[in-house]
Amino acid sequence: MTMPKGPQAFPRTEYLRRLNTVKSEMARREIEVLVVTAPANITYLSGYTSKSGYVPQGLVVSLDDEEPTFITRRMDGPAAIHQMFINRSHVIGYPETLIANPNRDGYDAIIDFILDKGRTRGIGLEAKLLPASTVEKFKYRSMKAKIVDFTHVVAWIRGVKSDLEIGLMREAAAISDAGMLRAREVIRPGMREADLAAEIIGTLVRGADGKPGTDVASFFLCSTPRTSTCHIRWTEDVFQLGSQINLEFSGVRHGYTSPLMRTMSIGSPSDQITRLHEGEVAGLEAALAAATTGRTCSDVAAAFNSTLKKCGFEKESRCGYAVGIDWTEPTASLKEGDITILKPNMTFHLMLGNWIDEDVGYVISETFRVTDVGGEPFTKLPRELFEV
Amino acid sequence: MTMPKGPQAFPRTEYLRRLNTVKSEMARREIEVLVVTAPANITYLSGYTSKSGYVPQGLVVSLDDEEPTFITRRMDGPAAIHQMFINRSHVIGYPETLIANPNRDGYDAIIDFILDKGRTRGIGLEAKLLPASTVEKFKYRSMKAKIVDFTHVVAWIRGVKSDLEIGLMREAAAISDAGMLRAREVIRPGMREADLAAEIIGTLVRGADGKPGTDVASFFLCSTPRTSTCHIRWTEDVFQLGSQINLEFSGVRHGYTSPLMRTMSIGSPSDQITRLHEGEVAGLEAALAAATTGRTCSDVAAAFNSTLKKCGFEKESRCGYAVGIDWTEPTASLKEGDITILKPNMTFHLMLGNWIDEDVGYVISETFRVTDVGGEPFTKLPRELFEV
Question: Are residues B6 and A218, on separate chains, in Cβ contact within 8 Å?
Fold first, then answer.
């Protein structure tokens, strides 16, 4: 029996459209063949979400092939055949002898493939994401080729979503909402942090509206006395009356995320946190109003920062970043000075976590898309500091 | 209020012992200051498990300082003060201006720190894990220093566990066992794969024996018709009578993992899978018997391979790898030809997943420690092909 093709997250035409945009950029940069290695970019151009990226793999895009070719460890070939939109003949497994081998690795298989095809003019690499030794290997082994850095080019192309992608991000957002509502429902004094985490993560996996989560993304639960931290999973502590719980997580649909942050309090929050919450919500609304087509990331950040300042607070870190497959996109930031121009269906995580000194932290965030009339958030949750 | 120190996974003496081993290697390689960037190595040398490694950070070990210094994004400083064994004065936060800045990043803050201290002789870097541009930056900015590659040196030191570490891996194994038992309990025809994943992951987070899981590690659920795949999370499918479910996951305790694989079948498995199971269990037992102090990784793999071959099967991929913090250690492999000599308390994931062509896959694995009388597995599960 051969591996059947699985259900596809997008139609073939969607992938070919994405590839054509990439190929235009390749042609403009005089690249004949592009080796895509960033896992989120591979997902974007093929539908592959299997987690084999801890060993070398590459999606090879050629100007003269409609479909890309995926070169991966042989044991991961069947998953690629199952998940990717491409023909099975475009999945090439390299042998196990290239694993844990100090002399040759999977990148040699990719170079062999390129050299066999006689493609030795411009080769595009996501060079800044690769180990130096790998880039050297490409240069050395394909001596006649010009190596062109393509780092983050596909990520910038990913920045503007199609309506189909927006649909998946809305599904992910519904799952994020379900997780947050579950938290509000079950938090109580005496509960272990880990038990809350289990309830939320279980909800994120079960999904919402009949659509399961398809992965577990990053997850942070930073509670008293750790509310000034932002990237702790959870601890072995037990909640008490007066505990504050800062939550950040995301549902996932076929790689697409829609992160969400909310702050919860067992009993009344302090006056300081209440005032900070009010300032942050005012800032969030100002930021969304500013996120219209044609304005800049800097404008959105300035709208947030000036509003928050009027309320007597400041936020040191950026107000957010482009978001999509596997969460953060390494491109535009919602910060003053980032003059990226907003286009319809760009999506951002308006991340307003505010950690002040060592003892104060408050979080709220929404994932939104840019429209002509402002940022349209995907969450349906109220902008409350949830008192439970 | 200042951030309090959290409960520590290990006593200070344990971290100092580890650091002394690292410092001996530094001295031997004429390195005055070492920049540790691999997250698992940072955890090993400090207790830090917060997930801030998606931006530059470095644990700087100096021969003339008892404690290392951690240089991290300012917002992550409080988590470092809370989790690391080091004095708070050894946590240095760099400002937000170094985030999403094309000209200067957190590595510049690390270089500034080293240059300020006047340490400009040998600088050790985990160079093969860093982007080429970062290594270039270190070379360029600290011109007088000799840059020495320290890639995987700390990982090799991590290879031999202390009894305290073995204790945490046993706790992680008890959680892995609980997850597998939960799977056996709830799998039934008509169940969605995602609902099974939610049940298992919820169990992995709640933990076992009163000790919660402290993170969610990688997780794979590859079921019919995808049993020949190995790295798919789960799908939207529903189990049916006759479905086979291959599971791989791990409990986590303060970073330490103890991965486990088992195969489950709804109804009777095929004759082929039953015979493969029998061969694999025989091979597993032969491998554990061979894993005695003084023998080699190659010996363990050969014992497995020859036993499996007698049963009429072969396995293409390696039989396992060193395991510990954050799962795989990038060092020893259980494969023929790897002549790493086994020492007491080395720990391996004896990973016997066997994916044959596109339609057959069977998984079983155990995490074990090396002893003088053979590999001692941490799991207490029977070596069964679970029929549910």
Answer: no
Smallest Cα distance from B157 to chain A, Å: 18
Contact A29, A148 (CB under 8 A): yes
Whether residues A229 and B194 touch (CB distance < 8 A) is answered with no
Nearest chain B CA: its distance from A145 CA (Å) = 20
> Is-contact B229 A48, C-beta < 8 A?
no
Question: Which candidate from A197, A225, A228 shows the least CB-CB separation from B205?
Answer: A197
SS3 A6: coil
Q: Check B229 against A132: CB less than 8 A apart.
A: no
Integer Cα distance of B9 and B256 in angstroms: 10
Q: What are the structural domains, with CATH classification, of chain B?
A: 12-158 (3.40.350.10), 163-387 (3.90.230.10)
Return the pLDDT at A331. 96
Longest dimension (CA), chain B: 69
Question: Is there a contact between A205 and B198 if contact means CB atoms under 8 Å apart?
Answer: yes
Contact A232/B359, CB-based, under 8 Å? no
Q: B76 and A229: CB-CB below 8 Å? A: yes
Segment among A47-56, A112-121, A239-248 with least mean pLDDT: A112-121
Nearest C-alpha of chain B: how many angstroms from A356? 8
Question: In order along chain B (388 residues), what is the average pLDDT of each group of 10 residues?
Answer: 91 98 97 97 98 96 97 97 97 94 94 87 92 90 91 98 98 98 98 98 98 97 97 97 98 98 97 97 98 98 98 95 97 96 98 92 98 98 97
Distance (Å) of CA A248 to CA A13, A173, A221:
34, 13, 7
Whether the full predicted model's pTM is greater than 0.90, yes or no, is yes
- Per-residue confidence band for A1, with pLDDT thresholds at 50, 70 and 90: low
Q: What is the mean pLDDT of chain B?
A: 96
Of the candidates B192, B232, B321, which has its C-beta nearest A212's C-beta?
A: B192
pLDDT for B131 equals: 87
**Closest listed residue to residue B254, CA positions, set A236, A227, A247, A200:** A236
Nearest Cα residue in chain B from A53:
B231
- CA A323 from chain centre, in angstroms, equals 5
Candidate from A51, A76, A216 with C-beta closest to B201? A216
Q: B327: alpha, beta or left, given left = phi > 0 and alpha = psi -120 to 50?
A: left
Q: Is the Cβ pair B226, A338 closer than 8 Å?
A: no
CB neighbour list of residue A280: distance below 8 Å, 6 or more residues apart: A308, A313, A352, A354, A362, A364
From the CB of residue B300, how many other CB atoms can be counted at a distance below 10 Å?
31
Name chain B contacts of A151, Cβ cutoff 8 Å. none
> Which residues from chain B sit within 8 angstroms of residue A95, using beta carbons?
316
Task: Tell whether the model's pLDDT for residue A379 goes beyond 70.
Answer: yes
A348: which strand partners?
A322, A368
8-state DSSP, B388: -
Using DSSP, state whether A380 is helix, strand or coil: coil
| Closest CB to B128 among A133, A197, A215 | A133
pLDDT at residue A2, rounded to an integer: 87
Are B349 and B369 spatial neighbours (Cβ–Cβ below 8 Å)?
no
Q: How confident is the model over A322-339, as pLDDT tens digits?
A: 999 999 999 999 999 999
Residues in chain B: 388
